[in-house]
Amino acid sequence: MCAAVPAAYVCVRSERITRCPVDKKKKVKAVNPLKACPSLSTSLMFQTNKANEIAFARCEQWAKEHYGIGLRSVWIMICCDGGTMSQRRCADVLGINYNVMVNEIDELEKKHLIKRMQNPKNRREHALRLTPSGTKLLGVILEAQKQGDIYRHAFAPIPLENMPTILAAARSVIDHETE
User: Fold this and answer.
1) How far is CA 100 from the centre of its chain?
2) Over pLDDT 90: what percentage of the chain?
3) 89: CB partners within 8 A, 6+ apart
4) Rounded distance, CA 146 to CA 172, Å?
5) Is the pLDDT of residue 125 over 90?
6) Backbone φ/ψ region at 28: left (φ over 0), alpha (ψ -120 to 50), beta
7) Tell me, what's the pLDDT at 84?
8) Residues 134, 74: contact at Cβ < 8 Å?
9) Helix-, strand-, coil-residue percentages of the chain, each rounded to 5
């Protein structure tokens, strides 16, 4: 049975202190849902989902703080690394809604990280290519990833040595779903 914790105070975020969903000006201490509701300790699905939410929020925060762009923008840049990719194909690969994709690319263009080029044979089709600034920034991001900086931030307190195992598990799930 779960302890009676007001819903407004059960805030799971990467930060220790977060905003109350009811009163945005009020800061509240984040509650560990596994302590608030011990029966969730047996739910693999809940725990993996929460761990994913926390890791995503931490990566998003890292990308914005260190590179001035969000995580989706980083993924778009990675898709364009080494050549061009159509805007639609990139959205399909990443599972991003087309409207959201357009907004992300607009922001990347404003920052001179990606260039959107119209297909002369089909006005509705656009190819994406990294600009020299985008290529340079992506190199910095990939090096930080290679060094484990992002991993240490996203998956704290899990040791860096576990990264290959976590990546292999994630790849197995993705490969199984897409075969």
Assistant:
1) 14
2) 59
3) none
4) 20
5) no
6) beta
7) 85
8) no
9) 60, 15, 25
DSSP state of 17: E
CA 143 to chain centre: 17
Q: What angle do CA 63, 69, 73 make, to 5 degrees?
A: 100
Strands (E), 52-111: 84-86
Amino acid code (one letter) for 93: V
Helix count and strand count (H, E) for the chain: 8, 5
Q: Which domains does the chain possess?
A: 1-34 (no CATH), 63-153 (1.10.10.10)
Q: Can you give the pLDDT at residue 27?
A: 61
First and final CA of the chain: distance in angstroms?
A: 40
Separation between Cα atoms, residue 22 and residue 159, nearest integer Å: 36
In this predicted model, what pLDDT tens digit does every residue of 15-48 receive, in sequence order?
444 544 555 555 656 788 888 888 988 999 999 9
Q: Which residue has the tokens 């509701």?
A: 37
Confidence of residue 8 (pLDDT cuts 50, 70, 90): very low
Q: CA–CA separation, 153 vs 135, rounded Å?
A: 23
Tally Cβ neighbours within 10 Å of residue 137: 21
In sequence order, the 6+-apart residues with CB closer than 8 A to the CB of 13 are 30, 54, 57
Map residue 64 onto helix, strand or coil: helix
